[in-house]
Design a protein that fits this description.
The chain contains 13 helices and no strands. By secondary structure, the chain is mainly α.
């Protein structure tokens, strides 16, 4: 483009950065980011989203956090998706405090958490074994008017089953049904696994029969626990 006398615009740079991030070439994407800035073309929300997502996918949370700070220095408040990506990335590495800091920071800046934010936080707490705190997050999101989804309940049901607490797992299952959230194959597989571990064969068979009476697409996995 330069040789042809054309000056790349924000769309051109974002297209190049997008392709580099998809290929996992984050260092090169960051170089293009620095070039566009030096050419007087300020990055926009899309630019930052791609760079931050790419950094998180590559496991470079230091770099991702740097670009969050860079956004704020340029008076750009990250949208919920970017915060959620950061929280999820910290969660995968078991870094609870950083994940909670991101949640508090987004609220401080006037960005409201959504169900994806809480799902990422619940996942984080479960990963480090803080099951009670994960359960509390469900209460918190409900009190804030945020409706849980099937992912929320599957995470908590899976955690309860891993603890062998089939009673609470069933309570969560009943609660999700009461709220109009349809259980899926993951929900029932977790419950079947829990019944199997506790040697409750009759209950497992009854649950499997219930699954067969639904329109759920069932693979071979549930049959391993029945």
């Amino acid at each position: 483009m330069y040789k042809s006398g054309l000056v790349p615009d924000i769309f051109s740079y974002n297209t190049v950065i997008s392709e580099l991030c998809k290929l996992g070439r984050i260092d090169e994407a960051c170089y293009v980011f620095s070039v566009m800035s030096s050419m007087g073309i300020p990055p926009d929300h899309i630019t930052y989203k791609m760079i931050i997502q790419g950094s998180c996918i590559s496991g470079d949370l230091y770099r991702a956090t740097y670009f969050i700070s860079h956004m704020l220095q340029n008076s750009l408040v990250p949208k919920p998706l970017i915060w959620n990506v950061m929280i999820k990335a910290y969660g995968k590495h078991g870094r609870v405090q950083e994940a909670l800091f991101m949640k508090n920071k987004m609220i401080e800046l006037g960005v409201l958490p959504n169900v994806y934010t809480y799902n990422a936080l619940i996942y984080t707490q479960i990963k480090v074994g803080s099951i009670d705190k994960a359960y509390y997050l469900l209460t918190e999101m409900l009190s804030n008017g945020i409706s849980p989804d099937v992912v929320t309940y599957n995470l908590l049901i899976g955690a309860a089953c891993d603890l062998g607490d089939i009673s609470y797992a069933l309570q969560l299952h009943n609660d999700m049904v009461r709220r109009g959230i349809e259980p899926n194959i993951v929900t029932y597989t977790e419950l079947l696994k829990c019944y199997s571990i506790r040697n409750k064969i009759r209950e497992a068979e009854e649950l499997l029969f219930k699954m067969l009476m639904t329109n759920l697409p069932i693979d071979h996995v549930p049959f391993l626990y029945s």
